[in-house]
Amino acid sequence: MQPIISIEGIGKTYAGGFTALKSVDLDIKQGEIFALLGPNGAGKTTLISIVCGIVNPTSGRVTADGHDIQRDFRAARSKIGLVPQELSTDSFESVWNTVSFSRGLFGKAPNPEYIEKILRQLSLWEKKDSKIMALSGGMKRRVMIAKALSHEPSILFLDEPTAGVDVELRRDMWEMVRGLRENGVTVILTTHYIEEAEEMADRIGVINHGELVLVEEKHTLMRKLGKKQLTIHLQNPVSDLPAGLGEFALELSDEGNQLVYTFDTQREHTGIAELLRALNQQGIEFKDLHSSESSLEEIFVNLVHQNQNARQQAG
Ligand SMILES: Nc1ncnc2c1ncn2[C@@H]1O[C@H](COP(=O)(O)OP(=O)(O)OP(=O)(O)O)[C@@H](O)[C@H]1O
């Protein structure tokens, strides 16, 4: 299937000479929720701004639903809704007018039924006549989403949608994003909250220093890079790793009170049975065992670290 967004060789060097993006290639599939993760300054907002036609790339090409974002800006942009990081609305206008006006900006004929539908979906219906300035921060954020959806886009960008919002609103947002996907809308979100990507995304892209270091299905990513650890609480502490256990990927922790065994979740054979046998043979007694799985957060931190190390070595 044709990707709904195709990003080819996108690079961006800002006027001051800073290169924020280096030749990014990425295809977004129709109907997916794609989470773009990356540390501060990685280039997430720059990439989104280029796809939305707000920032011009230094190199490369983007198409949205087949339309070139630079040559065919209006057609491409009409497919896209953008919820920016910063709230920007006219605070003296009512919610209803703000959202309806935004639809008009895209040259769409008025459709009060549709506006009512999105305001209801976003729990804004009761506030439709309120002035924006009288709304809470969370409500203002909902208005930004309603604005972004006002022209019925098939692609929605959410730049840090839940930064600084309370848990309840975050859950509501997730619910809303899932609802949008059910209606066939493709959603691309940037986030610092790994939990959000873990919860929401079908695919994850990790960007670091302007480079897309990884794009993967979330489940594959977690399976591929996820490690499991078995922590063995020893009966008596040891000062060194027992010599007879050299073949196992073991580390000593908690001042010699614990042995931590790391194994690959993908491998059929974990080696746990052999390890326990070896412990027995060595006469090492343990009082407890527990296993844990690495979270997306650990996977992410490792990736960004690896990328940094590789850069340092190359430089
Ligand atoms: N207009 C600009 N002129 C010069 N440099 C810029 C400009 N906009 C962004 N940058 C720089 O480009 C880099 C990438 O910024 P960008 O906002 O894309 O990162 P980000 O991944 O969205 O970060 P954050 O998570 O903090 O929002 C940063 O180092 C930033 O300082």
UniProtKB/TrEMBL annotation:
CDD domains: ABC_DR_subfamily_A. It comes from Microbulbifer elongatus. The keyword ATP-binding applies. It holds the Pfam family ABC_tran. Keywords: ATP-binding, Nucleotide-binding, Transport. This is ABC transporter ATP-binding protein. SUPFAM superfamilies: P-loop containing nucleoside triphosphate hydrolases. It comes from the Bacteria. GO terms for molecular function: ATP binding. Residues 5-234 form the ABC transporter domain.
